[in-house]
């Protein structure tokens, strides 16, 4: 395969030519290299005339391979490939010699730089000689999006995508959408009621015809690739038929199990066994908690189908729907497969509720030491106390309340070094809410630093101190212990250098935002990366903040890291716009740098021996087993095949293959050996 | 052949995402280092076949660097872990064959570590310069199967 290769050496102004003799490099490229039929140098190859020169010479000289010796391929590989494409040459016959970043800028001595440049150009010339024509891979796109998680991030992303005219499937594992935002009382820095701004969005989502909502459902498996995901959804048995049920509330009013701790109220209130999590729930239809329901408990004990148990059937008896009742004890989990083009992950966070590691704060033993979210529920008009601030142990209104910031955040000794970002602001909000409800009460706050970076945030915090009179003490609390019905908070005020002892009625811990308990398992299901704290990783912290490491999967909200509501909504909008860009095309084009398992004529078919080591190392599940069959249908052998849609082109399979049957396009063995062989060793 | 001073040639196999970008960053920062290195870019260190390294030695490289993303930072999730495992098996093999393992280094250099790239290159060049030229294969070619010094190189002909 003889090629006519053109070598274009760029001066880059003087960036290259000052320390590299570019003329000599061009001259040497031709010497002893019959494949190189044309060489030139040019002041700025990337400029418009430079690109024109490239295009013209490809045509005039009939080049079928090009080496541009210029800056890093990260800068202009794309530029020169495009230019070659315009001149009618396959763009994958263009290689870049990195003369600037990796030579002229780092080696000030001209003869040294020139010698190295000659080597670099020769290496790329040899690689170009082995380049094969590649064509972008076209992948069809299913124009539907999946949003995982029905909190504010998921809701925002789903609405944005649906409003642009695409179908959205939303999967929420709880019985209602709403997430943490629905639990909050008021929001900073405006103190507007959270539910008042949240519930209309929830209703909007439920009524949007483009959105298909699965609540009480979880993601079972995600297969496929960008534009073509097959998502298996487990619709958990709700024991209530959503189509029949009208949400009339008769059933949960008669349910005898009334003392189950409500998850929505952070265990400060109670719910029944058949329940809706909160009055504004969407869908406003109940679910039976099979763990606590008397009938299911009985059926489990006797090992009989739930329908045969006669212990309590009050909800079924009272259900007014006829002729078929909406309550169905025999319902089972259902697996549904949805075809999806792009995915938004908005699975949210979990509040640090296990304070047992904070033995010094009572380790979860003191009823009146509560978490931030529990305080939200106390302050919420829809909460267990209808908005009255009462301490959980005896319902007394606390006269002195202590807030402790950074519980589970910025505490490397407890294994959580990061800042949860929202606690400074929500604690300031809590002191205000407290003062608004308990006028003669006093709030103390122990803090490490006050981090109120955000629009109107600093002013908000100052209001808490200056207008509402909260006392901020800079220091950690070393111990909380009980004295009568009081909690003695022993801390330090590092600004005055004194020990502080406060007899408080209630203590609120500004507990950290943690990743969901199953975040790691979930990330593995989707093949996305996560950090040491199990928050999902964006692919670039600055320039690609919503893209996950898997193509077509985007991140929104606190599953990616702690953030407040405005930031969450902004990120959800960004994720939605990325999804929309993807769904706007009928076909996607992908770089053809993918692996391929060879196929040969019969009787060999492939040199693949079917060991499938490649399948084991592939991080993307892109290797499939393919049966090669005879005419009568009998399997002759089973060999590997690479799914081009899934393959990301890392080359792990090629390096692992024992029979050298896998080739990575653009970086095949021949090309690498050509590069190695072309280095001049003295 | 230069009689005056031995200048080693080092072949560096770099991953596209971290170390290659780190080497670019060293350039952008105008950080100078020794010019003895020739870079071969691959998508991922996990895609580096050990035979590439053997080939480089066979061709006359005096030293080899393999460098990729830090653990946990691999663009392809787990490629660098595979590279590390392969390296853990390959290194003792080289040692067994009589090649001084200092001639071949493995490192993690991120796209933000231009300085580390410079230090790594200078250190491997100095180390290999002190070791002298790698003549294992050349000796095999000229004097046949007799093995002397550190020249017990792997032979493709057996």
UniProtKB/TrEMBL annotation, chain A:
Cofactors that this protein relies on: FAD
Molecular functions per Gene Ontology: 4 iron, 4 sulfur cluster binding; metal ion binding; oxidoreductase activity
EC number: 1.6.99.5
Keywords assigned: 4Fe-4S, FAD, Flavoprotein, Iron, Iron-sulfur, Metal-binding, Oxidoreductase
Gene: ndhI
Protein family membership: Belongs to the HdrA family.
Ranges for domain 4Fe-4S ferredoxin-type: 236-265, 599-628, 638-667
Originating organism: Candidatus Scalindua brodae
Protein name from the UniProt record: NAD(P)H-quinone oxidoreductase subunit I, chloroplastic
Keyword 4Fe-4S assigned: yes
From TrEMBL, chain B:
Annotated Pfam families: FlpD
Keywords associated with the record: Iron, Iron-sulfur, Metal-binding, Oxidoreductase
InterPro entries per UniProt: MvhD/FlpD
GO molecular function, one term: metal ion binding
F420-non-reducing hydrogenase iron-sulfur subunit D domain residues: 10-132
Protein name in the entry: 4Fe-4S ferredoxin iron-sulfur binding subunit
Species of the source: Candidatus Scalindua brodae
């Amino acid at each position: 395969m003889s090629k006519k290769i053109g070598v274009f050496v760029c001066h880059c102004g003087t960036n290259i030519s000052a320390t590299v003799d570019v003329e000599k490099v061009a001259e040497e490229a031709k010497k002893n290299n019959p494949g190189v039929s044309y060489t030139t140098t040019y002041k700025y190859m990337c400029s418009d005339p430079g690109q024109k020169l490239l295009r013209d010479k490809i045509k005039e000289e009939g080049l079928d391979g090009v080496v541009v010796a210029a800056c890093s391929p990260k800068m202009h590989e794309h530029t020169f490939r495009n230019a070659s494409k315009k001149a009618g040459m396959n763009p994958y016959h263009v290689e870049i010699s990195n003369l600037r970043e990796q030579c002229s800028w780092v080696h000030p001595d001209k003869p040294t730089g020139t010698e190295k440049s000659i080597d670099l150009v020769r290496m790329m010339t040899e690689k170009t000689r082995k380049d094969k024509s590649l064509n972008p891979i076209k992948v069809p796109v299913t124009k539907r999006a999946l949003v995982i998680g029905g909190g504010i991030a998921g809701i925002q992303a789903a609405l944005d995508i649906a409003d642009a005219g695409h179908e959205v499937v939303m999967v929420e594992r709880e019985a209602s959408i709403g997430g943490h935002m629905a639990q909050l009382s008021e929001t900073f820095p405006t103190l507007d009621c959270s539910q008042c701004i949240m519930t209309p969005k929830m209703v909007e989502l439920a009524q949007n015809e483009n959105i298909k909502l699965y609540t009480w459902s979880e993601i079972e498996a995600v297969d496929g690739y960008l534009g073509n995901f097959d998502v298996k959804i487990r619709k958990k048995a709700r024991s209530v038929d959503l189509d029949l049920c009208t949400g009339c509330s008769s059933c949960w009013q008669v349910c005898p199990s009334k003392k189950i701790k409500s998850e929505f109220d952070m265990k400060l209130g109670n719910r029944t066994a058949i329940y809706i999590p909160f009055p504004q729930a969407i869908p406003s239809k109940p679910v039976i908690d099979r763990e606590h329901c008397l009938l299911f408990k009985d059926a489990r004990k006797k090992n009989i189908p739930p329908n045969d148990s006669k212990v309590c059937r009050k909800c079924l008896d009272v259900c007014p729907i006829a002729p078929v009742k909406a309550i169905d004890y025999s319902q089972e989990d259902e697996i549904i497969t949805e075809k999806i083009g792009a995915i938004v992950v908005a699975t949210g966070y979990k509040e640090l509720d296990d304070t047992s590691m904070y033995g010094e704060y009572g380790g979860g033993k003191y009823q009146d030491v509560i978490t931030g979210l529990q305080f939200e529920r106390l302050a919420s008009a829809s909460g267990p106390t209808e908005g009255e601030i009462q301490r959980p142990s005896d319902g007394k209104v606390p006269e002195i309340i202590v807030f402790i910031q950074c519980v589970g955040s910025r505490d490397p000794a407890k294994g959580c070094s990061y800042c949860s970002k929202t606690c400074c602001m929500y604690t300031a909000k809590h002191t205000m809410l407290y003062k608004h409800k308990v006028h003669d009460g006093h709030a103390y706050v122990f803090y490490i630093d006050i981090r109120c970076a955000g629009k109107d945030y600093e002013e908000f915090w100052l209001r808490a101190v200056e207008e509402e009179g909260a006392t901020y003490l800079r220091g950690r609390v070393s111990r909380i212990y009980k004295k009568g019905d009081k909690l003695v908070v022993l801390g330090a005020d590092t600004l005055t250098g004194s020990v502080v002892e406060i007899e408080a009625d209630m203590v609120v811990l500004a507990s950290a935002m943690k990743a969901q308990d199953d975040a790691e398992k979930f990330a593995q299901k989707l093949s996305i990366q996560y950090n040491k704290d199990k928050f999902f990783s964006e692919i670039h912290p600055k320039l690609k903040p919503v893209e996950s490491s898997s193509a077509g999967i985007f991140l929104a909200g606190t599953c990616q890291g702690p953030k407040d509501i405005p930031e969450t909504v902004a990120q959800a909008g960004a994720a939605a716009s990325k999804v929309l860009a993807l769904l706007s095309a009928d076909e996607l084009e992908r770089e053809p740098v993918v692996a391929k398992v060879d196929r040969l004529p019969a009787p060999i078919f492939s040199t693949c021996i079917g060991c499938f080591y490649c399948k084991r190392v592939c991080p993307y599940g892109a290797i499939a087993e393919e049966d090669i069959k005879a005419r009568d249908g009998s399997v002759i052998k089973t060999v590997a095949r690479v799914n081009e849609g899934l393959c990301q082109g890392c080359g792990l399979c090629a390096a692992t293959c024992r029979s050298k049957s896998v080739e990575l396009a653009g970086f095949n063995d021949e090309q690498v050996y050509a590069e190695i062989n072309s280095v001049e060793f003295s | 052949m230069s009689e005056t001073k031995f200048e080693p040639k080092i072949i560096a196999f770099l991953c596209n995402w971290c170390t290659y970008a780190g080497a670019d960053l060293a350039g952008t920062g105008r950080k100078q280092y020794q010019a003895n290195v020739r870079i071969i870019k691959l998508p991922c260190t996990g895609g580096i076949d050990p035979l590439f390294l053997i080939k480089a030695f066979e061709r006359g490289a005096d030293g080899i660097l393999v460098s990729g993303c830090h653990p946990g930072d691999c663009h392809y999730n787990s490629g660098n872990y595979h590279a590390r495992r392969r390296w853990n098996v390959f290194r003792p093999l080289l040692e067994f064959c009589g090649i001084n393992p200092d001639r071949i280094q493995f490192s993690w250099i991120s796209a933000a570590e231009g300085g580390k790239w410079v230090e790594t290159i200078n250190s491997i060049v100095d180390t290999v310069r002190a070791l002298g030229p790698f003549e294992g294969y050349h000796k095999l070619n000229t004097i046949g199967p007799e093995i002397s010094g550190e020249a017990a190189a792997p032979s493709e002909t057996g």
